[in-house]
Design goal:
Length: 285
């Protein structure tokens, strides 16, 4: 079977087993990049059964030479393993060659985060009132940007102070409490800012929704206005949520549940402890 046909079959399979649209889209893009690379390398369309271990190694090396980060290359290998595993089950090929490769060693770098004081400065520098409210919601709930922008009006229960995340990552639902500060912000937003005719909670009048690219652009513009050297994106709000809760004494298990992580190992990568806090910890003994 041609590689591009197998990729389409794999995408249909992922839909059948209820993988999220984000996952299907990400996997498909990576596999199409792999197909394009092999098509250029061999100067013709490629059949799955003709792909060699060298082909996979060459693709990952090509990605490294392009400056793709180790975490992204590790994810690419994971996707290839998943794809070839599917192909083996469907008798499209006889062996999962991707399983023969060593894992990509991922460099763990310090993730950016901001303090509450820095966040207040950032919020004041964001000019668009709807985007400002979106960023505040991410910071005070730890929600992923994709989860927050997809919120429907019915998902935000201001009466009971609960935000219902529907089909978050892994198609899991979870409830996140709305604190008093965010409750005031969201109430003000509904009464004085929101004008769009849309079922989305966060919506601009022109489009009836907000886009992830526009949110990040507004954040980057605000960071530039403040003259910060930090690389701040929407996802930094999620890291900062976890870190600031930890600083105030919240348990890692509570933070894990609020962030919607399946394991504590993932949660700990979102948390930052300064030298002073670590010194306080050892001095407890």
């Amino acid at each position: 079977m041609l590689l591009n046909q197998a990729i389409k079959s794999f995408a249909r399979h992922m839909e059948l087993i209820d993988r999220s649209q984000e996952t299907i889209r990400g996997y498909t893009i990576e596999l199409k990049n792999f197909n394009n690379f092999l098509t250029v390398k061999h100067n013709c369309p490629v059949y799955v059964e003709d792909i060699t271990l060298q082909d996979i190694e060459d693709y990952l090396l090509h990605e490294k030479e392009r400056g793709i980060a180790s975490a992204s290359r590790s994810r690419a290998l994971y996707i290839l393993k998943s794809f070839f595993n599917y192909c083996c089950k469907k008798d499209i090929c006889t062996k999962n060659l991707a399983n023969l490769l060593e894992p990509v060693k991922v460099k763990q770098k310090e993730r950016a985060h901001i303090t509450e004081a820095e966040f207040e400065d950032l919020v004041k520098a964001i000019e668009h009132p709807v985007i400002r409210t979106v960023v505040q919601t991410m910071f005070y709930t730890g929600g992923r940007m994709s989860e927050i922008i997809k919120l429907k009006l019915e998902n935000v229960d201001l009466e009971n102070k609960v935000l219902h995340i529907i089909e978050g990552k892994g198609k899991k639902d979870r409830d996140v409490p709305i604190n008093d500060k965010l409750h005031r912000i969201l109430t003000h937003y509904l009464e004085h800012i929101r004008e769009a005719d849309s079922d989305r909670f966060f919506a601009i009048a022109r489009t009836g929704k907000v886009s992830s690219s526009y949110i990040n652009r507004c954040i980057h513009d605000a960071v530039a206005k403040l003259g910060w050297e930090k690389d701040i994106s929407a996802h930094v709000m999620r890291h900062s949520f976890g870190t600031n809760l930890l600083e105030k004494g919240a348990s890692v298990v509570s933070i894990q549940k609020l962030l919607g992580h399946a394991s504590l190992a993932v949660t700990t990568r979102y948390l930052h402890q300064g030298t002073n806090k670590l010194s306080e910890a050892v001095n407890l003994l």
